């Protein structure tokens, strides 16, 4: 259902990414002083990750894992959405913990764990894909960089 929506409106994910990149550092800088809220928002941002990657789907798998290394672009709607999926939780977790680099690495590791679960639990009806891991990892890097910018902006405001 979500894939169908994104294919019909391929401009949605790039637009959302631009908004997150522009607004994220400022919102993150504000959240530095509101750590509990940042933690709550991080947990809420992880809900779509869990739903979109681990919720069972009703389909039959023909292949368990796909090894491809295509970079996400706006033309590759699903891949670009995978990139976007990890930006908000990593940004928020980076601000909440003030460890943006560690959180970015954990985002990539979490994506790898999700792909492993998809490979080992065929009942989910999901297939693992190295391209998904790559896109999620790039999203983690973007989220980490945005968290770094937010922390730096907050430090400057405090000085």
From TrEMBL:
Signal peptide residues are none
Tell me the domain of life: Bacteria
Transmembrane helix as a keyword? Answer: yes
- Keywords in alphabetical order, please: Membrane, Transmembrane, Transmembrane helix
Source species of the chain: Kineococcus halophytocola
Protein name (database record) = VanZ family protein
Transmembrane regions: 12-32, 37-57, 77-95, 100-121, 133-154
Domain called VanZ-like: residue spans: 13-149
């Amino acid at each position: 259902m979500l894939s169908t929506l994104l294919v019909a409106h391929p401009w949605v994910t790039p637009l959302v990414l631009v908004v997150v990149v522009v607004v994220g550092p400022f919102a993150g800088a504000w959240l530095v002083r509101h750590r509990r809220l940042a933690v709550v928002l991080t947990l809420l941002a992880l809900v779509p990750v869990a739903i979109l990657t681990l919720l069972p789907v009703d389909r039959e798998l023909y292949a368990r894992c796909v090894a491809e290394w295509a970079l996400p672009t706006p033309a590759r709607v699903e891949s670009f959405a995978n990139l976007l999926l990890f930006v908000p939780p990593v940004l928020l977790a980076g601000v909440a913990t003030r460890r943006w680099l560690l959180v970015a690495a954990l985002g990539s590791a979490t994506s790898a764990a999700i792909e492993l679960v998809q490979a080992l639990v065929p009942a989910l009806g999901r297939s693992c894909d190295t391209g998904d891991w790559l896109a999620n990892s790039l999203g983690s890097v973007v989220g980490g960089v945005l968290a770094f910018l937010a922390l730096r902006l907050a430090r400057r405001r405090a000085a």
